[in-house]
Each structure stands twice: as C-alpha cells, then as structure tokens.
Amino acid sequence: MQDDSALPTIDEVDAALVALGRADRDAAPTPNWSIFVRHLNRPTLAARVPLALTGVLRPMAEFGRPAVAGTLVATLAGVALGTWLADTFDRGPTATALASTDYTGSTLLDGDPAGLDAYLVDAGSSDAAADDTLPSGSKGGR
Amino acid sequence: MVVAVVAPPPFALSSPESQGDDALMAAIAQGDTIAFRVLMERWWPRVFAFLVRALAHRSDAEDLTQETFLRLVRAASRYEPEGRFAAWLFRIAGNLARAEMRRRRVRGWLTGVARVQDDAVLESLPAPRAFDPDGPLANAEIRAALAHALARLPERQRLAVLLRYFEDLPLREVAAALGIRERAAESLVARGTARLRRALAAHRPRP
After folding, report:
1. Do A36 and B70 touch (CB under 8 A)?
2. Closest by alpha carbon to A17, among B82, B131, B60, B129?
3. How far apart are CA B10 and CA B18, in angstroms?
C-alpha cells in the first residue's frame, strides 16, 4: 500500500490536468471551414428526392441504428428457428410399423366406402352404433 | 407632440459573438452560417482538447471534432435551449469517442494491436513550447507520465475526469454528458483522480 504523503495531492493533479488541457486547446488545429460550408449548403434530403420517397427512406434509416438492426436480426432469427422447429416436430418420426394380420373389425371405417355416417345410419341410432363397438359382455352398462 | 416608441433591437441585430450558446443554436437551426461559425470557433479548441486526451491520438481527435460539429448542425433543430449546451455538445463528442474506442477494441482483438500505443500518446502531446516553463507540466517526463496515465484510465473514468478537470464542467453536467447519475459521475471522477495520483507519485518533486 502506497503512503498517502508520497502521492500528489488532488490539487496538484487538478493543476496538471488544467495545464495539459490549456496546452491541448492552444495546439488545436484550425477547423476546415470549407467542409462545413459544403455541408451546410447541401440541399436537404427532402429537396433532393421526391416527398413520397423521403417518407419511405426516413423510417428505413432507423434500421441503420444498431439497436433497431439488432432487434430486427434477433426477431428474424427467432421466427426462422421457430418455423424450423415447428416443421420438424409437426412431421414427427416416420412410422414404419405394419400390421402382421388383417383385422376384420377395422372395416368399421376403412372397409365401408360410405364411412362412419353410413354405419351410424344403418345402426339406427348413434347410441346403438356406439354399443356395437363395445365388447359383447359389457353391453347394457352396469 | 409625437412620442416615438423605441422598440428593443431585434434579436438579429446583436452581434453573434455576444450571443449565448442557446441563442446561437436557435440561429443555426434557422440556417445561420455566421452563428455556426461563431459557435464553432468558441468550442472547437475545447472539443478537440477533450477528444485528443480521450483518444490519445491527434488525427483521430481531429476527425471526430469535425464529426461532432457536423452532428451539431444536423441536430440543431432538435436542440432544447435549457442552458446546458456544454453537456449536450460533450455528450455528442463523448459518444463519438466511445464508438471509436469500441472500434479500437474490436481491431485490437482481431489484429492483436495494443489499444493504447505509447508512440501515439507521446505524439498527441502539444509541443513543449505550449507549456508554461514555470507550470506544473514544465518537465517533459511529467507530461508524458500524465498523458500515459490518462490514456490507461478505464474509458468512463477517463471521460469523467476530462470533463470535470479539462472542461471544468460541474458534476451535474458531467453526469448529463455521460448519461449517468450525478453520484455515479462523482464516483468515476474520484476513482479516476485516485489512479492518476498513484500514477504520478513517482514524478512528484521531492520537497
């Protein structure tokens, strides 16, 4: 740990900084006025391009800001990732299992070209149709 | 008898040199190039001094001083005259300096070049004749030590110290220029000054 008495005081540091600042200011180069005149006299964006285009260009310029551009990139990346993941999970694993024997009961929908409607109409009522799908021992409820 | 009512002179009749910064900014917003010239001559050396010490690089400071004033012109119509022109101007300059420091950091990572280059720090110092022979920086070694110590301060501490001591801004304005609270600005200045004191200890003249 350095002894405090060996350190320059804050006033000494202050005086040194002020002296350096003054010397830096005195040594400042003269501004190149012509650059500013050219800039000041340049017609504005609205004067150079049609108003409708200016109306589009001005908001577009916002995308040049790092925060806005960063947000946009993150959003696009998020949407792309979400779309890719949704597509992958939606498809799921490919089914490869095959039935080893045909089950005649499966004709309930597949075997009748008219499908379930025709079956229900044939059965007379939807309740009866539902009862028909139950195992024989359980018909009639309790 | 006719009584002549003498109206106060209109704003434009007073000379731009005698006008305050806020009035000049209002005139610049109306496209007054003379007002801009007056304001630039008033503040150019101060902005340059701030940037040359913030970046420890003379030509970078020159470019960014120019850019600061170009931005001033572009933003003149949005300037709100609250009597805090210095804080507003140094906020622009400080933001540009920080962006340049970020670029240097990235360049440093990519190329392995040191962020602070000793040669550039020494070259950024004014010629010896710019210093008072009886002043605290009459000795070239102390000048170099101070410039190196400043260049090695952490970014925010360096900017806070420069605004407080170089530009003599009150802490409230230092805080406004850096976009931080006054307490935080005070802490940055105190820590920066403490580091400078330690760095200059070896060069302190013995009593």
Report:
1. yes
2. B131
3. 14
Q: At B8, is the pLDDT very low, low, confident or very high (cuts 50, 70, 90)?
A: very low
Nearest to B49 among A15, A28, A37 (CB): A28
> Encoding tokens for residue A19?
């002296």
**Domains present along chain B, CATH in parentheses:** 19-125+138-203 (1.10.1740.10)
Chain A residues with CB under 8 Å of B46 CB are 25
Substitution target from A2, A18, A20 for chain B, most B beta carbons within 10 A: A20
Q: Which residue has the higher pLDDT, A89 or B11?
A: A89
Q: What is the pLDDT of residues A34-78, one digit of tens each?
A: 877 777 777 666 677 777 787 888 788 888 888 889 999 999 999
B45 contacts: CB under 8 Å, gap ≥ 6: A25, A26, A28
Residue of A nearest to B66 (CA): A31
How many angstroms separate the CA atoms of B104 and B121, rounded? 15
> The whole model's pTM is what?
0.66
End-to-end CA separation in angstroms for chain B: 79
Residues of A in Cβ contact (< 8 Å) with B66: 31-32, 35
Q: Which residues of A touch B (CB under 8 A)?
A: 2, 6-10, 12-21, 23-29, 31-33, 35-37, 39-40
Chain B contact set for A12 (CB, 8 A): 136, 200, 204
Q: What pLDDT shows up at residue B49?
A: 92
**Beta carbons of A8 and B73 less than 8 Å apart:** no
ipTM surpasses cut 0.95: no
Distance in angstroms (rounded) separating the CA atoms of residues B174 and B180:
8
Looking at per-residue confidence, does A119 or B151 come out higher? B151
Residues recorded for chain B: 207
Residue B192 CA: distances (Å) to CA of B115, B152, B205: 19, 10, 21
Residue A140 has pLDDT above 50, yes or no: no
Beta-carbon separation of A16 and B136 below 8 A:
yes
